[in-house]
Amino acid sequence: MKVYNTLSRKKEEFKPLEEGKVKMYVCGPTVYNFIHIGNARPMIVFDTVRRYMEYKGYEVNFVSNFTDVDDKIIKKAMEEGVSSQEISSRYIEECKKDMAGLNVKPATRHPLATQEIDGMLEMISTLIEKGFAYVVKDGTVYFRTRKFEEYGKLSHKNLDDLQAGHRDIKVTGEDKEDALDFVLWKPRKEGEPYWESPWCQGRPGWHIECSVMAKKYLGEEIDIHAGGEDLIFPHHENEIAQSEACNGKIFSKYWLHNGFLNIDNKKMSKSLGNFFTVREISEKYDLQVLRFFMLSAHYRSPLNFSAELMEAAQNGLERIVNAAKNLRHLQKNAKRALMTEEEAGIFKSSDEFTEKFEAAMEDDFNTADAIASVFELVKYSNTKVNEESSGELAERLNKRLEQLCDILGIILEREEELLDEEIERLIAERQAARKDRNYSRADEIREILLNKGIVLEDTREGVKWKRA
Ligand code: AMP
Ligand code: ZN
User: Fold this and answer.
1) Cβ 29 under 6 angstroms from ligand 1
2) 243 & 314 share domain
3) CATH, residue 331
4) 400 CA to middle of ligand 2, Å?
5) Is residue 350 part of a domain?
6) Is residue 390 part of a domain?
7) Structural domain of residue 451, as residue ranges?
8) Together in a domain, 368 and 434
9) Which of 231, 243, 252 lies closest to 184 in space, CA to CA?
10) Is residue 227 in contact with ligand 1, taking CB distance under 6 Å?
C-alpha cells in the first residue's frame, strides 16, 4: 500500500510500526458551531482510509479529538451568555449526529482537550526541564522553536524565511525570545475558563493538546497523523516540535493531508456568504450523497462544491443503489438457487473489479478510480444477471458490490428504523444475556443497535439509550 507522506513529499510504501496494527490520529474540529462541509472532508476521507485498512485486516486504533477550549468557543459563549462548556458540549453532540449521517465511524476514542489538562501540564513541564520551553513574567510559557533543530521539516519551511515573514508582525508577548516561538500555556483573561498551573492560572495553547492526546491514547510513536492541509503549518509543525522534543522519538511515520473544499471555485468563507453547514446540506440531500461526492475526487486535490456536482453525485449513487436493489430482487425471485458452471465463470470474472478497486486504493487511496471500478461492476451485474439467473449469482455479485461500497462507507440497503418497543426489547434481551454471562450475545446486541443508530449507555440507574 502506497501513501503520500507530506514529510517526504513522496508516495511511500506503508509499513506499520507494529505488524497488523495501525495507530492513527486525526485532528478534529473546534466545536463552536455546526460543522461545515469543509470540516466534513477530513472526516470522510480519513474514515475511508481507516475502513480500507480494516478491510486489509489491520486493527486500527483511531483517535480524533474535539478542541473544546478556544477563543472562538469563548466568544460564542459570551455572545449567548452561557458557559464555554455549554457551547462545546452542544456542538460536540451536533457534530456526532452529522458524523452518523455521513456514516463516519465513531473513533476508537474522541478525547476532549479540557479533560486532558494534566497531561498538558506534564508535557509542558518536561519541555521546560529540557530547555525547549520557557516561562515569561506574566506566566506565559513559550516553545523555544529554534532549539528544535528540525523545525520546518514537515512544511519544508526554512526558519530564516519564516523569520523574515515575521519581521513586520508585532510580537505580542513582550518577553518572547524569538518571533517564531509559540504559546504552550497562557494566562487567563477575565471571564475565560482557566486551570491552575505552576506558571499561572490559565489555559493551554492549541497545539499542545494533540501532542498530549496522541501520546496518551496511541503512544509516543504513531503510524499516521492526518488533517486538512491548512494544519501543516503551523499546527502540525508545532506538534512535531513538542512531541519529538519531549519524547525524543519520531512522532508520526506518515503525515496525510486532505486538500481544501471550495464553493463555486471560490474559497469557502463566512464573509463571502458561500458557506454551508453539513446540517443545511442534510435538508436537501441524503448525507450519503455528500460522502459520495467527497470521495469522487482524490483526497489531496482541491474539490469544488456546486449544486451541479452534487446532482451528478446523487445520480451516480442512485445507479449503484438501484443495481443492488435489483440484484436483491432477482435473488429473491430466482427460479433456480445454485450457480451453473457458466455462472461460476461469470462470477469469477468479476474478481477483476475488486482487484481494480484495491489497486486504486493501494495507490494513495485513489477513491475516484475505486468508484470507477464500482461503476464497472454495476454495469457488469446489470448485463449479466436477469430473471433466468440463479439466486446464488445475484447474491454473490451483490455481496461483492456491498463489500466495496462498505469500504467507501456507502450503505446500499437501509434498514427500517427501529421502533421504541423493539429497542426496549433488544435492551432487555441484552440484560438477560449479560446475566447469563453470555457476553458475546450482549455485545452483538449492542452492535446491532449501534448499526441502527442507537447508542446505549450503561449507567447506575440502568441502561439508557438514544438515537445518534
Ligand atoms: P477546524 O475546526 O478549523 O480546526 O477544522 C477541523 C478540520 O477541518 C481540520 O482538519 C481542517 O483542516 C479541516 N478543514 C477546515 N476547512 C476545510 C475546507 N474548506 N476543506 C477541507 N478541510 C477543511
Ligand atoms: Zn491537532
Assistant:
1) yes
2) no
3) 1.20.120.640
4) 37
5) yes
6) yes
7) 420-467
8) no
9) 243
10) yes
Indicate the pairing of strand 261-263 with strand 303-305. Answer: parallel
Atom of ligand 1 nearest to the CA of 227: 10
The reply to whether 212 and 109 lie within a common domain is yes
- Both 394 and 450 in one domain: the answer is no
264: left (phi over 0), alpha (psi -120 to 50) or beta: left
Query: Which ligand 1 atom is the nearest neighbour of the CA of 28?
Result: 6
Same domain? For 330 and 396 the reply is: yes
3-state per-residue secondary structure call for 126-139: HHHHCCCEEECCCC
The reply to whether 98 and 202 lie within a common domain is yes
Residue to mutate (ligand 1; options 230, 256, 264; most atoms within 8 A of CB): 230
Distant-in-sequence, close-in-space partners of 440: CB < 8 Å, separation ≥ 6: none
Question: What pTM did the predictor assign?
Answer: 0.89
Which of 233, 258, 283 is the C-terminal boundary of a domain?
258
Q: Which residues, chain by chain, have CB under 5 Å from ion ligand 2?
A: 27, 210
**Quick check: CB of 27 below 6 Å from ligand 1?**
yes
Ligand 1: centre distance to CA 38 (Å): 6
**What is the DSSP pairing of strand 266-267 with strand 261-263?**
antiparallel
Q: For residue 286, tell me if it sits in a domain.
A: no
Are 161 and 196 found together in one domain? yes
pLDDT of the chain, 468 residues: tens digit per residue: 999 999 999 999 999 999 999 999 999 999 999 999 999 999 999 999 999 999 999 999 999 999 999 999 999 999 999 999 999 999 999 999 999 999 999 999 999 999 999 999 999 999 999 999 999 999 999 999 999 999 999 999 988 888 776 655 555 556 899 999 999 999 999 989 999 999 999 999 999 999 999 999 999 999 999 999 999 999 999 999 999 999 999 999 999 999 999 997 887 866 677 889 999 999 999 999 999 999 999 999 999 999 999 999 999 999 999 999 999 999 999 999 999 999 999 999 999 999 999 999 999 999 999 999 999 999 999 999 999 999 999 999 999 999 999 999 999 998 666 778 888 899 999 999 999 999 999 988 988 888 777 888 888 888 888 877
Spacing, Cα 364 to ligand 1 middle (Å): 20
Omega before residue 234 within 30° of 0, cis: yes
**Residue ID of nearest Cα to ligand 1 atom 18:** 38
Cell of 69: 477550549
- Atom index in ligand 1 nearest the CA of residue 39 equals 8
Q: Find out whether the beta carbon of 446 lies less than 6 Å from any atom of ligand 1.
A: no
- Whether residues 366 and 443 share a domain: the answer is no
* Residue 287 within a domain: no
Q: How many domains does the chain have?
A: 3
Span from the CA of 39 to the centroid of ligand 1 (angstroms): 4
Span from the CA of 142 to the centroid of ligand 2 (angstroms): 18
**Distance from the alpha carbon of residue 115 to the mean position of ligand 2, in angstroms:** 15
Closest by alpha carbon to 385, among 375, 393, 377, 374?
393
> Strands 454-459 and 133-135, how do they pair?
unpaired
Taking CA 67 as the corner, what is the angle to CA 63 and CA 73, rounded to the nearest 5 degrees? 160
* CATH code at position 39: 3.40.50.620
